[in-house]
Automatic annotation (TrEMBL):
Family: Belongs to the binding-protein-dependent transport system permease family.
Cellular compartment(s): Cell membrane
Transmembrane segments: 46-68, 103-124, 136-156, 162-181, 257-280
Protein name per its UniProtKB record: ABC transporter permease
Domain ABC transmembrane type-1, first and last residues per copy: 96-276
Organism expressing this protein natively: Nocardioides plantarum
Signal peptide as annotated in the record: none
């Protein structure tokens, strides 16, 4: 059995047998998909935006009819006008660039460390014995609880903010990638040993495809964790960013500016999650699931 055949087995989940050397019939797969009656049905184009649009419609109608008091929650048209003013004087885009940079650096650092730890713990019992315990301890301690300690270590500058975000990111990446590694069918490892696949080829052809669903799920949680940590660190001795703008607005009772900041955070989260879901859909297109 050849290495490409092993990859095919890892992708389609077929049991090891001589029949797996035959080419996979796409017609048979498509027939199963067409005949599926118990799934969630066909996807809704732009469905990810349906919920936010309905929420926005409720906000608009509630403000227009007086159901929502503008002293409690600014009207959408007021928020739009405020956003336009903030954009005109440069405050909004400056804060957005600062926030995206912080979140991106923390996310990249946390993902990198989380993947390395997951590989070390997932491919080695010794690595798991050393790494898994401390990560589980970190999992039980919210990253936000470590902020006082991080301030003492790194001060109140950008370094502390990036490390706080990274600590919130690495745990979901580690947990889901490690779980994806450990749930790879052991028969693939036996097959790889039988046909003489080396360690690097085994990781590239079996481990990476097998762990990819777990990693991408962890990435979705990681993006959310990064934004949650960003909201907090930008309200602690920050002098720039969307969080700083919100904190400053709360001191002056500017509800409309606060709503603008929250809408920006919401858009960032929605866009980031949409990008990850798109990547997952393309990277895992070989899977036949209810999502496909």
């Amino acid at each position: 059995m050849t290495a490409p055949t092993l990859v095919k087995l890892a992708r389609y989940g077929a049991p090891p047998s001589a029949e797996t050397d035959a080419p996979v019939s796409e017609d048979l797969v498509d027939d199963r998909v067409r005949l599926r009656r118990l799934g969630p049905g066909d996807g809704v184009r732009g469905g990810i935006l349906l919920g936010p649009v309905l929420l926005l419609a409720f906000w608009f109608i509630g403000s227009a009819t007086g159901f929502i008091d503008e002293r409690t929650l600014s009207a959408p048209w007021t928020v739009v006008e405020t956003a336009r003013d903030l954009w005109a004087d440069g405050r909004l885009q400056d804060g957005l660039v600062t926030s995206v940079t912080r979140a991106g650096l923390g996310l990249a650092l946390g993902v990198g460390v989380g993947v390395v730890l997951a590989l070390l713990a997932g491919l080695s019992r010794s690595g798991e014995a050393v790494i898994d315990g401390p990560v589980q301890v970190k999992r039980s301690i919210p990253s936000l609880a470590l902020i006082p300690l991080l301030i003492l270590w790194f001060g109140i500058g950008e370094e502390m903010k990036v490390y706080t975000i990274a600590l919130g990111v690495l745990v979901p990446i580690y947990i889901h990638t490690h779980n994806g590694l450990r749930t790879i069918d052991s028969r693939y490892a036996e097959l790889a040993e039988t046909i003489g696949v080396g360690r690097i080829a085994f990781v590239r052809q079996v481990v990476v495809p097998g762990a990819m669903p777990g990693f991408l799920l962890g990435l979705r949680f990681a993006v959310t964790s990064a934004l949650l940590a960003l909201v907090v660190v930008e309200q602690i001795n920050a002098t720039s960013g969307i969080g700083y703008m919100i904190t400053l607005a709360s001191s002056y009772g500017q509800t409309d500016v606060i709503i603008v900041g929250l809408v920006v955070y919401a858009i960032l989260g929605l866009v980031a999650d949409g990008v990850v879901r798109l990547i997952a859909r393309r990277a895992l297109s070989w899977r036949r699931t209810l999502e496909s």
